[in-house]
Amino acid sequence: MTFNGELRFFVNNPFGKGDVTGGIETELQTCVIGSRDNVDLPLYIKNSSYYKNLQKRTRNGEYSPKKLQELDRFLEENRDNTWENSYVYFKDRYLNNFAKSVIEHDLLSDKSNPQSGKRSDMEKFILHKNGEKYWRFPVSYFLKISLANYIGEDNSLNQPTKNTLKKLLDKFSNDNTSPEVISFYVVDDTENFADSLAKENCKRFLFTQLLTIYGNKKFRLDEEGEKVVVYHSPLTPSRQKRLNELIPDSLYRDLFISPCLSGWDKGEEKKRYMELCHLSLSRSYLNTIGKLKDVGIIKNNLIVLPNTSNTCLTNNGIHISIGSKLITAKVKYNNTKFYNIAEKHYSDLVIKIVEHFIPLLIQNYSASPYRIPFRDLHPEKILGFLPHELDFTHIRMLYRRWMKKCFNKRFGKRFYPFGPSWIDITIEKILNLKGDAVPDYRLIDYFVALLSTDNSPAFDGKLNNHIKLKEELHEMGVFDEILSFYTLFRGRSVNENGYNGFEGRFYSCFYDLREDTKHVANLQWLFIALAYKLILSGSLTHQEIPDDPFVESERRQLVFAAALGIPTVYIKKDTRNSLIRSIISHCKNTRISKRYPEYIRVEVKDYLNAAMNFITKEGEDLLEDLDIKDTIEDMADRLHGVKKSTYNKMIEPILENHKVKSPIDIDADLFNRDLESFYRNELRIKHIKDGFKALLDDISVKMNDSNRLSKYSEKISQFSQIYHTIKSSENKVIDETIDLDTLKQLISIMAIDFVSELEKDHRGEVCSIAI
Fold it and tell me: Chain-wide mean pLDDT for the chain?
């Protein structure tokens, strides 16, 4: 079946102003602060069968004492007393009846069937100490129970408001290790769509902080020597990576794979899925070695074998979903196979177009800085999943250019790590070889996109093409067919997700939670709208961007080059991708490559400027219609260095602290530790302030309508000083000195704000955010 621009499937202007709705899923980092004698993670390791057997076999002389010494050193040498992704435990008597009822329900083996009995692993969540019952949960579930406990004790809200507020409990999900907090309400704002989406994101983060402090205080974690902290941090913590090298993968999964208590009827079934996900990704990572040998990057058998347990599932990202009311309604109303095929045909083509513009957002708005020491520059370690995501030609080109960028050259010769770690460390120290600094390493360390095969294109517009590709990749040992499809930009269909739209899955971390969210939402919206304009005008079809692994890899190399900070890429002179030809026609500094005569050498910065020129020229009318000229100006300022990029804003405090000009001048381990501390402290505080500002902006409007507030609270007179309460609480929330009564009042204010949004009549099923 073929389609053209006149197809009546699309009427008017899809993804135009007034047509879009949106939501955000945020993956957050957690830690429990306390001594090794109090926090669950070190206690659980010491009480594990593995640790006890290791002690026994070391005493018997079966094992070298080195492994036990290294694990003990990990447990004892924690200068910050920070234990990322640890469980937290607290006394049962501090919970009220409603919170206990939520726990009892979530511990059912099938929540849709009250007679199903309890989960078989429920004893994992219960402790008995000094004759008293304790609950033991991951922090992701601790947040949900904090909200449940607040709902159960707050007398300021009336019952209808409480009933609506209970809907937020399932917004605190946890299939991966980290909490996944989903938009509390669908944003549908004709005038200020992106800013409204950004404000919801800011307020939700602030609310999460309030629930964290509430749980710390209400469940008296200080009595147990614990303190929970929740924050944005995109990369797996360095100490967790170190621990992964010291313990077997079964214990790693026991420690860090989520029990999936919230968000699914059959939690244990979902947990088994996540264990399969971990096993599959770990196996897939090992299988990259064969590809690196085939491509010639690994030239002999002297390699560093990657760990059989991969840590990539603890990388954290931000997913922004934007839907179209117009297309959703059209497909729902007609509900025929023809419209389902048409929806898939156009969605796949939009994805292929948008992928060309994703590099604009990397570094500039989204970043995950990382310092790689020379000793870790083994290709089998640093290339992550790239061998499964790029064609052989592009992986060779990318690796060669990356190594040229690294600071590993002395006496006119480039050095590479080649052997046991003690040799590599010795060479590193003697020659002062520094390695590299990468702007957005999460996109390298995680499996962000599956590459098509010759037989199974990922985005050719045909129904079920993803299923066929996953089956083929499963046979190759690259991916498991049971897992959901991994891609940078994912289409959302009416039949599967309840709405038509797209989810951007490539965002790592924002510095300014409101401004960065607003601008990337505007840009993602613009990219989609421009793609549909080009499609419906007949300018671009599937044939113009062929479904070929090489062509797919050719455009995606730009994403990974931007993430790695590589200055140049290579585009085939006679590329069959007409869109990339059109974009590079705007480039000013291209030339034929001397090394690769069949390719054009393109500077990444030049490509980004060319992409912006293409967008502003082809989408000139859209900039006016969508009213996003301020975002285009901001993008141009970041591209030209007038404004600092998110990457530079993140590393700047660390550079200033060490009085250097580049991350490469700081020891890699020290830089990465300092960055993790920055996320946990300074950036978290910055995001809390962003949340307070967004809350004040929204609440000041609602305060003018006391009747609007009185429907939610029977004690509305207590809220006459709402503005003052919010303003006076900011610093107390930041330093966590706020008293419990004021904290509950602040949570109540936010609860009313969220409930008022949830009850707006014009929202509904159009863009419900699906995980």
Answer: 91
CA gap 42, 86 in Å, rounded: 9
Q: pLDDT tens digits, residue range 149-176?
A: 999 998 888 888 888 899 999 999 877 7
Q: State CA 719 to chain mean position distance.
A: 36
d(CA 98, CA 640): 54
Helix axes 604-618, 549-564, angle to 10 degrees: 110
- Examine the pLDDT at 718 and tell me if it is beyond 80: no
What are the extents of the domains in the chain?
A: 20-24+315-373+437-449+486-654, 29-39+81-231+674-758
- Nearest CA-CA partner of 34 in 178, 225, 199: 225
Tokens of 160: 């209808």
- Would you state the structure tokens that stand for residue 166, as one six-digit string? 């209970």
- Contact between residue 437 and residue 672 where contact means Cβ atoms under 8 Å apart: no
Q: Which two tokens stand for residue 57?
A: 């076999």
For 591-629, b where at least 16 C-beta lie within 10 A, e where not — what string? eebeeeeebbbbbbebbbbbbbebbeeebeebbeebebe
pTM: 0.95
Banded model confidence at residue 10, pLDDT cuts 50, 70, 90: low
- Residue range 701-722: mean pLDDT, rounded: 60
134 strand-pairing partners? 91, 127
Of 312, 553, 566, 328, nearest in space to 437 by CA: 566
- Summarize pLDDT for 353-377 with one digit per residue, the tens: 999 999 999 999 999 999 999 999 9
- Dihedral, CA of residue 315, residue 260, residue 30 and residue 561, to nearest 10: 10
- Range list of H helices, 296-336: 325-334
CA distances from 534 to 5, 224, 364, 491 (A): 9, 60, 25, 18
Strand 126-129, strand 568-572: pairing: unpaired
Residue 129, φ and ψ in degrees, nearest 5: -140, 130
Q: What is the DSSP string of 46-72?
A: HTSHHHHHHHHHHHTTSS-HHHHHHHH
Q: Which of 675, 759, 691, 683 is closest to 208 using CA atoms?
A: 691
Task: State the residue for tokens 């070391």.
Answer: 58
- Give per-residue pLDDT as tens, 209-238: 999 999 999 999 999 999 999 999 999 999
Least confident of 12-21, 450-459, 689-698, 733-742: 12-21
Burial group, residue 254, by CB count within 10 angstroms (0-12, 13-18, 19+): middle
Beta bridge pairs of residue 319:
25
